[in-house]
Specification:
alpha+beta, seven-stranded mixed sheet, 10 strands, binds zinc ion, signal, ZrgA-like, DUF2796 domain-containing protein
Length: 188
């Protein structure tokens, strides 16, 4: 079953527009979430510098390694976002929106999902800033049990000091700001 992530995320359009307007602050990242049972979509956006340490195409072996590691890490959603087990959610799709095309040495791994793919937008010139967005889509058999989200992603990417969270849940729209020490997010 293909799930209409784009449709879900239209609820977050004002937020997306805000991002497009150029909110780009090193040390800060953004997590947008829509829960519309049985679907749940999470969009994680960050300045690339928080993830890889640079914001241009990898130009050395060390940068290439960091780039490959970052993309592989972003595919392993379960190491970044942990959902209440009782909610019985399964990850149905991962989309990475990359700021530019860059070679990746990663061929495949066991965590790959059927509909996973990557988009690159070659509209970034050298010496400018760049953002990366990862979208995760879940199908939850028991959505009401979604009470807490654990977010080890800030430990995986320690350059992120602040995580701005926007949620659209059955109870309405909510906003939170998490620091690196707060890894648990209560879902209203
Ligand atoms: Zn930047």
């Amino acid at each position: 079953m293909r799930l209409p992530l784009r449709i879900l995320l239209t609820a977050l359009l004002p937020i997306q527009n805000l991002m497009a307007a150029g909110v780009h602050q090193h040390g800060a990242a953004q997590l947008d979430m829509v829960i519309e049972p049985p679907l749940m979509a999470i969009s994680f956006s960050s300045p690339l510098a928080n993830l890889t340490g640079f914001e241009h195409r990898p130009s050395s072996d060390a940068e290439q390694q960091s780039w490959d590691d970052t993309l592989a890490q972003l595919q392993r959603a379960e190491e970044l976002i942990q959902l209440s087990a009782e909610a019985d959610c399964s990850l149905s799709r991962v989309d990475l929106h990359l700021p530019f095309t860059a070679k990746s040495r990663i061929q495949s791994n066991e965590h790959e999902h059927e509909h996973e793919h990557e988009h690159a937008h070659d509209d970034v010139s050298q010496n400018s800033h760049a953002d990366l967005m990862a979208e995760y889509q879940y199908l939850c058999a028991n959505s009401p049990a979604l009470k807490v989200l654990q977010l080890p992603l800030m430990q995986r990417f320690p350059a992120i000091e602040l995580l701005e969270v926007q949620m659209v849940t059955p109870s309405g729209q909510h906003q939170r700001t998490l620091t690196a020490k707060q890894t648990g997010l209560q879902l209203p």
